[in-house]
Structures are given as C-alpha cells and as structure tokens.
Amino acid sequence: MNRIVLNETSYFGAGCRSVIAAEAARRGFKKAFFVTDKDLIRFGVAAEVMKVFEANNIPYELYSDVKVNPTIANVQNGVAAYKASGADFIVALGGGSSIDTAKGIGIVVNNPEFADVKSLEGVADTKHKAVPTFALPTTAGTAAEVTINYVIIDEEAKKKMVCVDPNDIPAVAIVDPELMYSMPKGLTAATGMDALTHAIESFITPGAWAMSDMFELKAIEMIAQNLKAAVDNGKDTLAREAMSQAQYIAGMGFSNVGLGIVHSMAHPLGAFYDTPHGIANALLLPYVMEYNAESPAASKYIRIAAAMGVNTDGMTEAEGVQAAIDAVRTLSVSIDIPQKLHEINVKEEDIPALAVAAFNDVCTGGNPRPTSIEDIEAIYRKAF
Predict the structure, then answer these.
(1) Which terminus of the chain is more solvent-facing, meaning fewer CB atoms within 10 Å of its CB: N or C?
(2) What is the pLDDT at residue 378?
C-alpha cells in the first residue's frame, strides 16, 4: 500500500500571496501569527505579506525568533508567543527554517503533551492536526510547504532531530516566485541543489513507486533546465518560476517516500557547524550517488541522466550510472558549489562522530544500499 499526503490547497504564480486574504476569510480565521526571520524583515520580503494583511484588515502578531537550523528554544518560545497572541492561524514565510519552526509551534500548541519538543523526533504519535498554517516559501529548495517533515536542532545533544508527522503539513501552500527574487546567487544555488537532492534520493529510495517517480523525474528535468539560469540572473522570472514549481514537485514525492544518506550525512553538518543544509546536500550528493550505484537502484540512474538532458541512447547501465553522476557534478561545479568538506570548515577529527550521527539519522533507513557507520565514515573521508 502506498500513501500520498499533500496540502489541502496550493497556489502557484507571481503575486499569488494575495490569496492569503481569501483563504483566511473562507476558513473564518480572524488573526494571523506571522512567523518569519529577521533577514526577510530586513530585506523587505516580509513587508510584501504584511501589505496583504493590512490591505485586508487582518490583524497579525509578528514572531521572528527564527534562526538558520532552528532550535527547540525557537519552537518553545514560539508556542508561548502564539498562546499569548490570540491568533487562530499561522502564516509562515521563509525557507525551511521559518516553515519548520512554524510546524513545530503548530504541532505543540495543539498537542501540548509534546511540549518538550524532543519527543517529536522520528515519527511522533500526535493526535491532533497542527494549528492551520499557510506556508509561503522564499527559497526554491526545501519544499517545507508541502512536506510532512521538519527539522529542529537539539542543541544540548548537538543533533538535528528529523520529525515526521502527517499532522504538521501546512493546510495551504502559497508558492509565489516574487518572494524569491531577492535570493542571492549562493542561496539560489544551494537551495536548488537541495531540491535536486530531494528528487534524486527519493527517486532511488526503495519506497519509490509510479507516482513518486513521476514527480521526481519531472523535478529533475526542470531543475536541470532552470537552476543555472536562476543562479546566473536572479531576475530571470521564467527560471525563478520554474524552480519554485520544481522544488514543490520534488517535495510531493520525497515527503511521501523518504530520502537517503545524503540527508543523513548533511544533517550532522548542520548540527555541528551550522552548515547551510543545501550546501551540505549539494556537496555530498555525487559521492553518495557513487556509493549507491552498487545497489538495485543502479538501473534507475540512466533515467536520472536522461532527465538531466544527457543523450542516453545506446548506453549500458554502467555508462548510465556514470552519466548521471557526471551530470550532477557538472551542474554543481557550474554554479560554484564547494566540492570538498574541508572547503566548508568541516574538521577531519570530527568525522567519526559525524558518521555515528549520520548512521542514526531517520533518513538512513531510506537509502537504497544498506549502510554502516564505517561506510559512511569512508564517504565523508572521500569527500573531505
């Protein structure tokens, strides 16, 4: 049996943030709890959503205690602020960090027995849906607006907690590429490669099936065609719009079938060094693809290569594997993604601890090749 969990309603296209008002009215909501980060306030992106609130007389409470790689404290402070605000729905604006913080807040408010946040790690048995949330992504990568996953840092244990819960999915996703126009080159590159990692990992996971494959192959194709253009020219509206849709399509798949050890290995880098998640994924992806080529998934690599625009006519399976890995690496290099862990300040002496943390990550079970701490350590060393 296969299951697909998606948003109740999703909107796409330039300017579609205006639907916040109609959706709030339709659902009878009176006051918004607006979760975003300080950078989006500073760069005027949050103001674009505030204008919608103000033009439609929707009262709102602003909550910006959000950081890259959000922590338990960010969630707990948000729960207290939500309860004090008198709001009845959440509007989350940002990349994965803002939306993940909002998911944690929404779940704990309606499931107070999980107030410690730590107990949400893995698959938590929550009984109630999160506070209704409208999610507006500002990056084209995480797909947090369409997934049943969120990631919170346990600072005490120095680890990323991956939380999987169908009750946390935002009720409404509003994918407005205009909110992504201010993304700098580096962030566009990193988040775009995060989306590609989602698509490739969930295409080759053992849980993949016809519907998830359909999503992921289309996402790979759209990313291969549009990411470099979006990086090279942030004002290329067609490329921005295509990337905003591609990352969502990738999310429709991976949220429902899972990921693999690229994510398992990227998560500890975020916990140890605050490495941006997209950079960690992008750097590790080709190394893990090489490792996973020795698995039943190898036969699918030629379809990855074809989706990335490679002419695969007459290729053997082995040639298809190499073509897929080369296509990923070529795209990565073309948009200036670092290729070695030492370039992003990973410490060699931490590798054994990173490998243990990665092996214990919830994503490890979705890898197409059964793995071990030793194997993961060897991949880290190869990438170092």
Answers:
(1) N
(2) 98
CA–chain centroid gap for 124, Å, is 19
Q: Is the dihedral of CA 34, 35, 41, 43 positive or negative?
A: negative
Tell me the Ramachandran region of residue 68: left when phi exceeds 0, alpha when psi lies from -120 to 50, beta otherwise. Answer: beta
How far apart CA 354 and CA 341 sit, in angstroms, is 12
Q: How confident is the model at residue 159 (pLDDT cuts 50, 70, 90)?
A: confident
pTM score, two decimals?
A: 0.95
The model's pLDDT over 47-76, given as tens digits with 9 standing for 90+, comes to 999 999 999 999 999 999 999 889 999 999
Query: Alpha-carbon distance 216 to 266, whole Å?
Result: 20
Question: Of 44, 64, 53, which is closest to residue 23 (Cα–Cα)?
Answer: 53
Domain covering 9-180, topology: Rossmann fold (3.40.50)
Give 145-159 as a 3 state SS string.
Answer: CCCCEEEEEECCCCE
Burial of 370 (0-12, 13-18, 19+ CB in 10 A): exposed
Residues recorded for the chain: 384
Name the nearest CA neighbour of 265 among 250, 276, 281, 286. 281
All structural domains of the chain with their residue ranges: 9-180, 185-383
DSSP labels, 13-64: STTGGGHHHHHHHHTT---EEEE--HHHHHTTHHHHHHHHHHHTT--EEEE-
CB 45 within 8 A of CB 177: no
Q: What is the DSSP letter of 207?
A: T
The structure tokens listed for 243 are 């990337």
Segment holding 245, helix H or strand E: helix 237-257
End-to-end CA distance of the chain: 40
Assigned fold of 185-383: Dehydroquinate synthase-like, alpha domain (1.20.1090)
